[in-house]
């Protein structure tokens, strides 16, 4: 049993088969176990002919793809995808090298309602553990990198519900602070995840060994990014806390592009709340209304809870920015932009936005007020 099975079981056992983590991990619909066990050696040797043959060997016939259930379809995309990224790392467009994979990728994308290549979900959450684990390099640091993402996903799944509850509440209601407190518990897992990464994955290892496996590939004339950790959707939390109406054009554009790599229910959450009113804006309006008086207890509690979760987000982003800056420093980097397609400057901008919103909420409760007569 894994952390994914223990956290928020009511959420993870939805009827959506994408939450049946153990079933997807166990699936091997293409019979890829033995072949992918040899993948790190092929990559170490930059053996493009062997990688090409491996991909061609795994490509199923169209009628077989049509018969796959969604669990097997997700596992099939996982196993084809790690070969796609391997070929691209060695300078080969995989679909051009193995054209017969194109209709398979497109059909798997349709059947799973996801992009027609592997995502961070395939590479981490849906990846088998132990001897069957799919890896590009086989290095223990790569395994730790996958584990760090696995640590965060269960809490982000839970945060989907608490943030939706938050969007339905007003700061004067008890449910507002309660939803924020629960969200804070979930977001703490992101801090734990980045701390685990800092302790176990060298920025130089990521920059020089891993980053090149996450390059975009061309699938039917559209470029799709690889399964980068940048696809871990912390924007699920940003969205209702502050981003939907207090963002900037660069972050908005990044999210509009990144959301397509997430699960269907998460995309629906984004569509439902992207034009909403953020928790920061709701609280600011409520506090402004009470400007001349002592804050009502429930409104003060809401402000404390919102400041707390924003502070946790700020902590995560500060550590993430420091880690990314080391990985993309001039003396080690091979790329100018992150694996999610964004420049390092965007990370700094989002950190600044998070800090500004946290400061706004914290200071809003510190202004001198005239007691109610």
Question: What keyword list fits this structure?
Answer:
single chain, 373 residues, mainly alpha, Methane Monooxygenase Hydroxylase, Chain G, domain 1, 2 domains, elongated, disordered N terminus
Could you write a compact summary of the structure shown?
By secondary structure, the chain is mainly alpha-helical. The chain has helices at 3-6, 9-12, 21-26, 33-37, 39-44, 48-58, 62-66, 70-89, 94-97, 101-112, 120-125, 140-167, 174-200, 203-210, 235-246, 249-258, 264-273, 279-289, 297-327, 344-364; strands at residues 217-219, 222-224. The protein has 20 helices and 2 strands.
Describe this structure in words.
The protein folds into two domains: 130 residues, Methane Monooxygenase Hydroxylase, Chain G, domain 1 (Up-down Bundle); 213 residues, Methane Monooxygenase Hydroxylase, Chain G, domain 1. The protein is mainly α. Helix 19 runs antiparallel to helix 20. Strand 1 and strand 2 form a beta hairpin.
Order of helices and strands: HHHHHHHHHHHHHHEEHHHHHH
Under the CATH scheme, the architecture of the largest domain is Up-down Bundle
CATH class of the largest domain reads Mainly Alpha
Q: Which percent bin holds the helix content?
A: 55-70%
Strand content: under 5%
